[in-house]
Design brief:
By secondary structure, this protein is an alpha/beta fold. Helix content is 33%, strand content 19%.
């Protein structure tokens, strides 16, 4: 279905609660799709501290047969009255990439054939890493599922996060073997350590204030 299931989202907010308690936090959410995980986490932030903020990022393309997904996500944000918590950035986290992981889900929209027509701002995560260095408490990565793209995102995540901050990665399982391998690789490095894992969601904790990851 494309969205993170409720039980896994409950796992995410449980771990965020255990780690941050009732404190004000600032987070980033990469990859909104229909806004389900965005609003679930946004609602948790309200219950923790109403001054918490969540910056979300999505290129607003067609995905899984749904046109302009980010427009749908923002309607959900308004429905749950989370406008005071959520800051919306329309753009790719890094460079432009083929939507839908290159797959034609509906048989009518080929993302490869339509690649040149899909436009959105690039390098938004990189821009934020220059602006908010060391000021972010947690980051959710659920956008591009290419492992090399994920590794480059983690380079910027490393700059954005505070010491002891968390990285939450979706689809850490056998269906996305390269994502799972990347998670295991990074969790045994010297920048991040494995914080928790529920069979789908992998959570890393930043352990050093270093600037870049070893490329795989």
């Amino acid at each position: 279905m494309g969205s993170i299931p409720e039980d896994h989202l409950d796992f995410v907010v449980l771990k965020l609660s255990e780690h941050f308690g009732k404190s004000k936090v600032v987070g980033i959410h990469v990859g909104n799709f229909l806004g389900i995980s965005l609003c679930h986490i946004g609602n948790w932030m309200v219950t923790q501290d109403a001054e918490s903020k969540l910056i979300c990022m999505d290129p607003n393309l067609n995905h899984r047969g749904i046109t302009r997904c980010n427009d749908v996500a923002m309607k959900l944000v308004q429905h749950f009255k989370l406008q005071h918590q959520i800051i919306n950035i329309v753009g790719y986290s890094l460079w432009k990439s083929v939507s839908n992981d290159g797959l034609n889900y509906t048989g009518t929209y080929d993302p490869i054939l339509n690649f040149e027509e899909e436009d959105s701002l690039e390098f938004q995560l990189e821009n934020l890493s220059g602006l908010l260095h060391g000021q972010i408490d947690f980051i959710v990565l659920d956008g591009n599922h290419n492992h090399k793209y994920l590794l480059e995102e983690l380079n910027h995540v490393n700059k954005l996060l505070k010491y002891n901050g968390l990285v939450i990665i979706d689809d850490v399982h056998e269906d996305w073997a390269a994502i799972k391998e990347t998670f295991e690789l990074i969790s045994h490095g010297n920048q991040f350590t494995k914080f928790d894992f529920d069979g789908r969601i992998g959570i890393l904790r930043k352990i050093e204030d270093t600037e870049c990851l070893q490329k795989a």
